[in-house]
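dumping this here so i dont lose it
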């Protein structure tokens, strides 16, 4: 390799690294800005109660997929830590639904805030290919601020989704 070609290659590599850095910085800035704009819509989440009754739907292990602004299934909520996917356990009590997330604060969904529990094919950029559109358990609920959001959860065993749907039909 001669010297001019080597210098040209190095300059190209440096320009490429700087360009990638600028794109990543712009994406992070957009994520933060979107979070700031959504903070007013989301407000404060309901607090977890000190005591609850016995579970009406036993703990379901799976993955928390995030929250979206209803009814737009692909408009991800990025305020706070609601936009991060993580392993989770979902349990239903007479007083509400508990989403215990690994590495994040638990989410408490009061029973009177629950609008619907249903299955969907996907949520916020996460589509699960299934024949019966039951890849994601979606819980639509109303925040204290009045905003409606969908919380997505994918059970490790998709058959567990039916327990959640049966519970919803009983009410």
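and the seq i came up w/
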């Amino acid at each position: 390799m001669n010297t001019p070609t080597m210098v040209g290659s190095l300059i190209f590599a440096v320009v490429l690294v700087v360009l990638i850095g600028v794109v990543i910085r712009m994406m992070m800035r957009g994520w933060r800005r979107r979070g700031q704009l959504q903070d007013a819509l989301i407000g404060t989440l309901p607090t977890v109660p000190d005591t609850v009754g016995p579970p009406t739907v036993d703990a379901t292990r799976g993955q928390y997929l995030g929250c979206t602004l209803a009814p737009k299934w692909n408009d991800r909520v990025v305020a706070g830590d609601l936009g991060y996917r993580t392993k989770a356990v979902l349990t239903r009590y007479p007083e509400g639904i508990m989403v215990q997330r690994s590495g994040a604060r638990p989410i408490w969904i009061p029973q009177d805030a629950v609008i619907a529990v249903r299955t969907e094919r996907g949520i916020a950029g996460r589509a699960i290919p299934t024949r019966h559109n039951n890849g994601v358990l979606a819980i639509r609920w109303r925040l204290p601020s009045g905003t409606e959001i969908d919380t997505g959860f994918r059970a490790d065993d998709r058959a567990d989704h039916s327990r959640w749907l049966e519970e919803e039909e009983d009410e």
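DSSP finds two helices and nine strands in the chain.
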